[in-house]
Amino acid sequence: MTFLLPATLRGQPRWVLPTLAGILALAALLYLWNIGHSGLSTYYAAAARSMSRNLHALAFGALDPAATTTLDKLSGFVVPQALFIRLLGFHGWVLALPQAIEGILTVFASYVVGTRWRGPVMGIATAGIMALTPMLAAMFGRPTEDSMLTMTMVFAFAAWQRAVQSRHWPWLLLAAAWVAVGFQAKMLQAWLILPALAVGYFVAVHGTVRIRMLRVGIAGVVAILLSLSWIGVIQATPPQDRPYVDGSTNNNAFSMVFGYNGVDRIVPGLIPGSVPQVRHTSSRGNTTATGWAAHNPAKLVLPQFTTQIGWLYPAALAGVLLGLRPLFRRRFRRGNTSESAGTDEARAVEARTTENGTVETGTVRTGADRAETGTVITLALSAGVTALVLSLAFVPHATYFAGLALPLALLSVLGALEVTRIYRLGTPRSHVPLVALVAAQTAWATAIALIGPASLRWVALPVLLLGVTATVGLLVRRTGRAWLLPAVAAALIGPTIWSASVLKPGGGGSVSDGYAGPRVSAAFIMHHAPRARAVPSSPVVPGLDAEQVRLLRYVTPLNGGRPWLFATDTTYVAVNFLLYTPYQVTLMGGFSRQAPHPTLAQLRTELRASTVKFVLLSDAPGPSNTALASVHSWVASTCVVALRGQFRDGSPASQTLYDCAPRS
Fold first, then answer.
1. Do 38 and 142 contact (CB within 8 A), yes or no?
2. Alpha helices for 14-54 (secondary structure H)
3. pLDDT digits 0-9 by tens, 163-207
4. Other beta carbons less than 10 A from residue 147's beta carbon
5. pLDDT digits over 4-45, tens only?
6. Angstrom distances, CA of residue 73 to CA of 43, 235, 258, 386, 586
């Protein structure tokens, strides 16, 4: 039955299968343990439920079942949630289940990538690091768009790797297709990997410059065309036959994707037709979206990021430097081949550890070096471009950086394997790289623990003890391999403890902002986002508070069977009613109250057609929106006040319900 196993599992040492099974079980435990208590983002959950009820809403990514307005981003990541709701019914755990499955597939794909590159040791180590990355442990158990993006980016790299290793370039087209799928989940962020895949392929494979450029160009065109296919269909559909595109002021999907969700996060207002950014939407407790860190290239060295994804920075840096050595050695040999050919040290440096563990010396294989160098360049460039762009951009949640997990894991393992290989050569100074890496890694992990949350600073003590023990042992007994175990433990104990914190309720951050462990003190960096007051859910209608139940009881018997219960400019009220009741609600102004939809003329048409009777408007002034301001002015002067209350869950702001039925 072994023929049923993937190629990367056939013929492997006996320890591989049970170890991989244990890692996947650990990942499943982390992602599924609190799946029923992970909470939900009412905005996206309402869209998922609406899309599960109406195929037209599913096709266009609409917020409401009647498909009057879309989400303010592409809804590819919501599609699996909607399909699971149709299959299993609407429950909180059903919303999170697709992301948990995506996480398990991501860990397995990480094993496949590592095994193809350097054998089962790298595969198992990479999968283990991915499973124990705190950011991923928190993210994959919650319904977020970053889960699908992370999975597709790993799949894209795996397909790129096949293109390089098999020399069958059509695999490059599969990589492009996976990038396009990631685009549907997180839009332009998926394209950040394209430069790395292009440059890496150009470096890694043989062939004329013209052939390589042609292949890379074709793959790039495929990625772009497939990425734009969905928004192209949306935009080609007549406006009257599709929902209004939220996130835009001109009902244009390209403005929403490339402006509101794209370059406007770096240079606001650059693309016309996009809704201005709303800075106050960052999750409670998040410290990435406000203050001086919002557009800071040093964002990834801040404590709130290093505790989540930055534990292995020194090992990853070592992987880049040592992985690129063949590139520099070839240049050196071209200029000084005769001097270095006969020395014992040169032979030692050119040694290679093959997949079955034997060591071969002699001339470095050019093809293998090209693939090795191209892979390292691809990983380093992917991590570098993603880190730079997202550090300069406005990102409301830390999990935007989850795409760095695979490059950091692979490069970290590469660095560890390379210094260990050099250590085993037994030359007079072969222990120096390993000792230096263990010392640097220990110092870095200790610093992260010490500047992290006070409740977990005790982690610094075991990290320091294990790291110092390993460093001293490697210095004193230079051939003692037993000292490698405490070195590995020192590197992994921090992320393991942080990841394990998601097993307790509330240990994984909020549903829209996965964060493993206690957060860094807000006073250390900047102020927290304001806390909303807690409002208990009413037992009469679970999910609605008492004020919203009062609104529901008032409107329902007077609505006269109209398709929509009411129209409102308050997003939180609209999504709560869409989520927890069977009724339809029209959202005016979109998520941020800045989209000019519906216009006053459109609203009056719906009122005359008896599609809607009641209009619920916020009493607080909103963002600048001429269309919504006209609606406010007309409703206040024409309609009858029916009810006042604080209907927005958790907010002291009040809203007024108007009866706008035409008078005879």
1. yes
2. 16-32, 42-53
3. 999 889 999 999 999 999 999 999 999 999 999 999 999 999 988
4. 30
5. 567 778 788 999 999 999 999 999 999 999 887 777 788 999
6. 12, 14, 10, 20, 18
Domain boundaries, the chain: 442-519, 546-659
Residues 491 and 315: beta-carbon distance below 8 Å: yes
- Residue 246: pLDDT above 80? yes
Closest CA to 73 of 511, 297, 396, 529: 396
The Cα 660–Cα 440 span in angstroms is 69
Strand partners, 248: 274
Other beta carbons within 10 angstroms of residue 505's beta carbon come to 10
* Helix 42-53 × helix 571-580 angle, to 10°: 50
431 pLDDT more than 50:
yes
Counting beta carbons within 10 angstroms of the beta carbon of residue 587, is it exposed (0 to 12), middle (13 to 18) or buried (19 or more)? buried
* Cβ contacts of 461 within 8 Å, gap of 6 or more: none
What is the reported pLDDT for 278?
A: 63
- Cβ contacts of residue 321 below 8 Å, gap of 6+? 415
Across the range 63-85, mean pLDDT stands at: 94
Q: How many CA atoms lie within 13 A of 494 on its CB side?
A: 33
SS3 of 366-408: HHHHHHHHHHHHHHHHHHHHHHHHHHHCCCCCHHHHHHHHHHH
Is 124 within 8 Å of 114 (Cβ atoms)? Answer: yes
pTM, two decimal places: 0.89
Burial of 339 (0-12, 13-18, 19+ CB in 10 A): exposed
Sign of the alpha-carbon dihedral angle for 263, 268, 272, 277: positive
